[in-house]
């Protein structure tokens, strides 16, 4: 799998709306699988400017997506998303009251390190300009990304969505899961950062005290926005016509009792994340021990100084000069806790996916048992 070039996200400017640029980091975490690492390091660039402005009272409460957008996202993954490869693109549309209407999208091309002349910003501007010339909605309202077995909760996604949401308040990120979609149900979810997490990211205080003060847990990081897929009447008629002509045998695939390797892969990724959480806990416990040990050494030093000053005073000698104890005993650096929250959020996502998968399979087993009893 080719490594895509790492770029620095461009800050929002007063230029025309632009699309996100797909980039990837050069290194991956050793404890995760190569597939999961490819997902967690995919990072789109933030928008060049905001598509619209609104107040906090007009927060997005629903996402309405045209069926054409869904088909474009699925087609993009089928053409470029080989295996665990991440595909990303731009969402275009407009905001109506508290509803975000996504009416169009276009993919962002993947490029390798050899494509040094590829200009992400220039590509974005050209695409937006071309859409505007043909009278297609060109306002930037977010971005989409594919996922691999639900592996999308990462620092890269958080930073990217914060940049988008900071520049475009209504922006969302659509997460498309092709593996769950292949099992018979479309898996497309819209996420936004919660106001609490937005404040923490603005302050850039990811310490344990900062997160505790903001009352942010892994449940308060992302909020899911309900999605409604809308089609025109002609498209609905065409869909019913195609469904009527589809062979009946193909529909029986949804009742297949085979779980392939989906459950095994999900459990493996879950165990990898649990290992990461364990390592992170060990690091934090080590920090607490070092901080406690240093506090004891600082107190012992101050007590020795105080006793020596008492002895010098009894001998009529001047006390020792004051010293800056904080410079002598520098506190150990506290590890950031945001990574722990992200790992906990990803673990929760894996658990929910496993729960949904097993519940569906249990339902199929009961249906198969009822059909067998009826046949007998």
Automatic annotation (TrEMBL):
Subunit-level organization: Component of the eukaryotic translation initiation factor 3 (eIF-3) complex, which is composed of 13 subunits: EIF3A, EIF3B, EIF3C, EIF3D, EIF3E, EIF3F, EIF3G, EIF3H, EIF3I, EIF3J, EIF3K, EIF3L and EIF3M.
CDD domains, alphabetized: MPN_eIF3h
InterPro entries per the UniProt record, alphabetical: eIF3h, eIF3h_C, JAMM/MPN+_dom, JAMM_MPN+_peptidase_M67A, MPN
GO biological-process terms attached to the record: formation of cytoplasmic translation initiation complex
SMART domains listed in its UniProt record: JAB_MPN
Protein name (record): Eukaryotic translation initiation factor 3 subunit H
Function: Component of the eukaryotic translation initiation factor 3 (eIF-3) complex, which is required for several steps in the initiation of protein synthesis. The eIF-3 complex associates with the 40S ribosome and facilitates the recruitment of eIF-1, eIF-1A, eIF-2:GTP:methionyl-tRNAi and eIF-5 to form the 43S pre-initiation complex (43S PIC). The eIF-3 complex stimulates mRNA recruitment to the 43S PIC and scanning of the mRNA for AUG recognition.
GO molecular function, one term: translation initiation factor activity
Family listed: Belongs to the eIF-3 subunit H family.
Entry's Gene Ontology cellular component terms: eukaryotic 43S preinitiation complex; eukaryotic 48S preinitiation complex; eukaryotic translation initiation factor 3 complex
Domain MPN: 63-197
Stretch list, region Disordered: 1-22, 292-339
Lineage summary: Eukaryota, Metazoa, Chordata, Craniata, Vertebrata
Biased composition (Low complexity): 8-22, 294-313
Keyword Zinc annotated: no
């Amino acid at each position: 799998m080719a490594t895509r070039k790492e770029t620095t996200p461009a800050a929002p400017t007063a230029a025309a709306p632009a699309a996100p640029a797909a980039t990837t980091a050069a290194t991956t975490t050793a404890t995760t699988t190569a597939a999961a690492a490819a997902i967690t390091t995919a990072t789109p660039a933030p928008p060049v400017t905001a598509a619209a402005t609104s107040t906090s009272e007009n927060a997005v409460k629903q996402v309405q997506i045209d069926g054409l957008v869904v088909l474009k996202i699925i087609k993009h993954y089928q053409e470029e998303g080989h295996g665990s490869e991440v595909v990303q693109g731009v969402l275009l549309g407009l905001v109506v009251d508290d509803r975000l209407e996504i009416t169009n999208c276009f993919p962002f091309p993947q490029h390798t390190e050899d494509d040094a002349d590829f200009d992400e910003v220039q590509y974005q501007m050209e695409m937006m300009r071309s859409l505007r010339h043909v009278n297609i909605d060109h306002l930037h309202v977010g971005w989409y990304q594919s996922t691999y077995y639900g592996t999308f909760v990462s620092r890269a996604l958080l930073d990217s969505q914060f940049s988008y949401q900071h520049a475009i308040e209504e922006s969302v990120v659509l997460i498309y899961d092709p593996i769950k979609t292949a099992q018979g149900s479309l898996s497309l979810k819209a996420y936004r950062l919660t106001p609490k997490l937005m404040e923490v990211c603005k302050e850039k205080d990811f310490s344990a005290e900062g997160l505790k003060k903001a009352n942010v847990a892994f449940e308060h990081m992302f909020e899911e926005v309900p999605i409604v897929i809308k089609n025109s009447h002609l498209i609905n008629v065409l869909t019913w016509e195609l469904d009527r002509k589809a062979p009946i045998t193909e529909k029986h695939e949804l009742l297949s009792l085979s779980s392939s390797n989906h459950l095994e892969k999900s459990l493996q990724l879950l165990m990898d994340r649990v290992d990461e959480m364990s390592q992170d806990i060990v690091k934090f416990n080590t920090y607490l021990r070092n901080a406690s040990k240093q506090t004891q050494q600082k107190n012992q030093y101050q007590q020795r100084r105080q006793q020596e000053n008492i002895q010098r005073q009894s001998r009529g000698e001047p006390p020792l000069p004051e010293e800056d104890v904080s410079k002598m005993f520098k506190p150990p650096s506290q590890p950031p806790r945001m990574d722990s929250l992200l790992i906990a959020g990803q673990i929760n996502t894996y658990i929910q996916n496993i729960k949904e998968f097993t519940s569906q399979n249990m339902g199929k087993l009961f249906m198969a048992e009822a059909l067998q009893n009826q046949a007998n």
